[in-house]
Write a structure and sequence with these properties.
The protein has three domains: 24-204, MFS general substrate transporter like domains (Growth Hormone, Chain: A), CATH 1.20.1250.20; 218-258; 268-466, Growth Hormone, Chain: A (Up-down Bundle), CATH 1.20.1250. Helices cover 80% and strands 0% of the residues. The chain has 466 residues and is mainly α. Residues 30-466 form the Major facilitator superfamily (MFS) profile domain. This is Arabinose efflux permease family protein. It is a multi-pass membrane protein.
Length: 466
């Protein structure tokens, strides 16, 4: 039995261990660069997604065309993920960070100068290629610099980064109310300039590397990237012969990619992981979840603007509860998963998001009524926030340690593909309905039921977690 002095001393040690100020300043400098990079990449997803109606009006484009400003960005992020480790070995973390930030700054400038939808989509692809490495770079940077403090540092970083879905709609709302659409992209310029200086001065200079760069599956990259792009473009032009040809070409490329992965030792994705039931369930859950999150950010603003008559500036404020719900769920996630388990938390989160979206759809269309719709969106955000962490953690804990690096890459790519795929599918279905009922606002409301379906599919796949 310990004496009171021993208990008091143990308390002081524990308090000191948890005090963030006791971490070396150089760690916080490095972590600040990592946080800012990941935050910028995520913020630019939400800011543009909730502004599609305004961008469509500015460029005179259709919904199917302008949604590529989001889908192309997300697809580029997914495709560049496997390159990160290879480029780190070639360039080092510091130089790669500076390169990514400079590229992000320049492409943000180009996006603001775009004169047509096609140019905007092209520049968003380039922006996504630079942004796609910032999130995995953040994880790698913190893992190398924090050491035994990684769990604590990762918690602070994640709590900061998760603010992006909350701030994104608010930033978009403020810009659209006070300035032109160009500033949706030009706002990145001063922030990224500061990030370049931080990366140059805060990150340590790395010595010459002795270990060779890992092999990269270039053949797999050249199969999956155009295959998915052709599939999404084919869906947009399904009514034309060119669309059918695109889908046939996409099927051929993706089939060849699967064949290639099964025959290649160091392939881009480890398809053998999908034979593990828990990993397969987690991957399906992550795919549907990311698809539901992005589709929500696309469809709900379109409904609020075109069906309820709210201004794009007001829409940003109404979407803020989505981010608030995610943040609240993230804070509670550790204790909930410890107490209830991964499956219960993820399934309940998916059902909560589905119920919240049902409530949002069934509420009467009264422009002055904002509290109840925002409460419904808070439920959706909280539900979405409760799905991601349990499903990802369940996948990693179910696998052997030697399979974790490839599992992380595979899960990250699959997760990020869900956004552009589901956003394109939902936008295309909405466009078909609008073509049948061009003068009606009903299709915007009916499209929200697709979000209910996506969250229900999340619940079904999460039910297989352990």
């Amino acid at each position: 039995m310990r004496t009171s002095a021993q208990i008091e001393q143990a308390g002081r040690i524990e308090k000191a261990r948890l005090a963030p100020a006791d971490l070396p300043p150089n760690i916080w400098k490095v972590v600040s660069v990592a946080i800012l990079g990941a935050f910028l990449a995520l913020l630019n997803t939400t800011v543009v997604s909730v502004s599609l109606s305004s961008l469509a009006k500015e460029f005179g484009s259709t919904l199917e065309q302008i949604q590529w400003a989001t889908s192309a960005y997300l697809l580029a992020i997914a495709m560049v993920l496997p390159l990160t480790g290879w480029l780190v070995q070639r360039m080092g973390i510091r130089r790669l960070y500076v390169f990514c930030f400079v590229a992000f700054l320049l492409t943000s400038l180009l996006c603001g100068f775009a004169e047509s939808t096609r140019w905007l989509v092209l520049f968003r692809v380039l922006q996504g290629l630079s942004a796609g490495m910032l999130a995995p770079l953040a994880q790698l940077t913190m893992a190398r610099s924090a050491g035994k403090q990684l769990a604590r540092v990762s918690g602070y970083a994640a709590a900061t980064i998760v603010l992006a879905p909350l701030l994104g709609p608010l930033v978009a709302s403020a810009i659209l109310a006070q300035a032109s659409w160009h500033w949706l992209f030009w706002m990145n310029v001063p922030i990224t300039f500061v990030a370049i200086l931080m990366a140059w001065y805060f990150l340590p200079v790395e010595g010459k590397r002795i270990s060779p760069a890992p092999m990269l599956d270039w053949r797999g990259m050249t199969l999956i990237a155009p295959g998915i792009a052709l599939a999404l473009a084919g869906l947009e032009q399904l009514h034309a012969v060119m669309g059918i040809l695109m889908l046939v070409a996409a099927a051929a490329l993706l089939t060849t990619f699967v064949w290639h992965c099964r025959r290649t030792e160091n392939s881009l994705l480890d398809l053998a992981l999908f034979s593990h039931p828990v990993f397969c369930a987690a991957a399906c859950t992550q795919f549907m979840l990311n698809g539901a999150i992005i589709a929500t950010q696309v469809l709900v603003p379109l409904y609020l603007v075109h069906a309820t008559g709210r201004s794009p500036a007001d829409v940003g404020w109404m979407l803020a509860p989505l981010g608030m719900g995610m943040l609240g769920a993230f804070i509670c996630m550790g204790s909930l998963t410890d107490r209830l388990g991964y499956r219960v938390v993820a399934v309940c989160g998916a059902l909560l998001a589905s119920a919240g979206m049902c409530l949002f759809i069934l509420l009467p269309d009264i422009p002055s009524l904002t509290t109840l719709p925002m409460l419904a969106l808070l439920m959706v955000g909280a539900g979405q926030g409760a799905i991601g962490v349990p499903s990802t953690t369940a996948a990693y804990t179910a696998l052997e340690k030697k399979r974790l690096p490839m599992a992380a890459t595979t899960l990250n790519v699959v997760q990020r593909l869900g956004g552009p795929v589901m956003a394109t599918v939902c936008a295309q279905l909405l466009a078909w309905r609008l073509a049948l009922e061009p003068q009606s606002t009903g299709p915007y409301l009916h499209s929200l039921w697709m979000l209910v379906l996506l969250h229900a599919l999340c619940a079904l796949s999460a039910f297989r977690l352990k």
